[in-house]
Amino acid sequence: MSSSMYHQWWHAIARAMAPPPKPDDHCSQSAQSKPPSPSPDKQYLLNLPPELRNRIYEYALFHSTCISFPNWLITEPGLLRCNRQIREETYSMFWSLNTFHFGDTKTAEIGLTGLHAKKIVALRSVRACSADVAVQSRDWLKYVDFRLRGLWAACEEKGLAPDVIKMPLKVTGEEEVQWVSLEEADDFEIGVGGFVVRKKDLMPH
Fold it and tell me: For residues 183 and 97, what is the distance between their CA atoms, to the nearest angstrom?
C-alpha cells in the first residue's frame, strides 16, 4: 500500500469513527435543511476501493470481547447511521462479526425478538446469560436445553440459525466454562455423582 493510500485509509478510519457534528443553534432552518455538499477531500472513505473500505469497516466494527447489553435494548454504532451507502455496506457486518451477550435468557428473548429479520439472519454468536450462573447439575443441563429450544423457536421464523445462541455449561474435568448451542448441548450427559460430562467420556475405551 502506498504512503498516500495508507494516509487516506487511516484518515477515513478517524472520520468514520468520529461522532457527527452538532448542528449550530444559530443556523437558520433553511440552512439546516440544505447542508452544503461535502468537498472531495472529505469523502476519502467512499472514494476508496471496496476491499479497503471493508477492512476499515471491520476495524471499526469488530470487538475482540463480547458486546454486553445490560437490558434488552440493542443499539447500533454510529457508523451505521452516518450515511446511507455506508449503512448498506456495513449493515450485516456489525451483527456477523461480533458476539452479543445478554445477562439472562429473558432479556435475550426480548432483545432478539425485537430485532429486524435482516439482523437476525446476520447474527453468528449470541450468549444468552452470564457464565456465573452455570452449575454442574442435571437440572441445569435440562434448563439449558429447554431455554435454547425456546429462544431458537422464538426467532426461527426470522431466520435465526440454531447454532447462534449459546448458554454456559460447567463440565467435569474442564476448567473453562463451555458455551454450547442447542445442537452442542446433546453432546453432554449427567455422569456419576450428578456432574455434567461429555458423552464421549462415558463411552468405554
Answer: 21
Q: For residues 136-154, b (16+ Cβ closer than 10 Å) or e, as one string? A: beeebbebbbebbeebbeb
Question: Degrees (nearest 5) of the Cα angle 162, 139, 192?
Answer: 105
DSSP strands (E only) in 57-195: 67-69, 99-102, 125-127, 165-169, 178-180, 188-190
Stated pTM of the model: 0.73
Alpha carbons 164 and 46: distance in angstroms, whole number: 32
* Residue 39: half-sphere exposure toward Cβ, Cα within 13 Å: 1
pLDDT tens figures, 168-188: 999 988 989 999 999 999 999
Residue 47: closest CA among 59, 56, 34: 56
Fill in the amino acid letter for 167.
M
Helix (H) or strand (E) holding 3, with range, is helix 3-17
Dihedral (CA of 40, 43, 44, 46) sign: negative
